[in-house]
Amino acid sequence: MADTTNPISPIPDDSTWGYLASVDVGRIAVSSDNLPEVYPVNFCLDGESIVFRSAAGSKLEKLALNSHVAFEADGWSEEGGWSVLVRGTGSFITDEDELARVAKAPLLPWVPTVKKNWVRIMPTRVTGRTFLFGPEPSQS
Question: What are the Cα distances from residue 100, in Å, to 45, 71, 93, 105?
């Protein structure tokens, strides 16, 4: 967590994946026609990539048009919070061997719908920050 002299601290590069591994839900940002859209997804890590399942729909249509994505996940406690941002490319997993392998991942749909599409986000940049909660500093 952040130290008390600086309420916002960067997460070291070698620790960002540990933070991501500690949660199950994040948000993927996709874009088409210069309009961003953000969708919540449950996900898991596969090495240093992010994998999620989805039914056909808006986010997959936009991903097919523009593979550049951002993914964000965060967590918090009473003392503070953290946020990790992944920038990269999203692609559909189509290789049969890879699909069989990721199908064994601990990733179940939130709602009882068929989610046949698997997506992998390969990062080009990963950054994170921790936040120390507390009262607003007094203004003198």
Answer: 16, 24, 10, 10
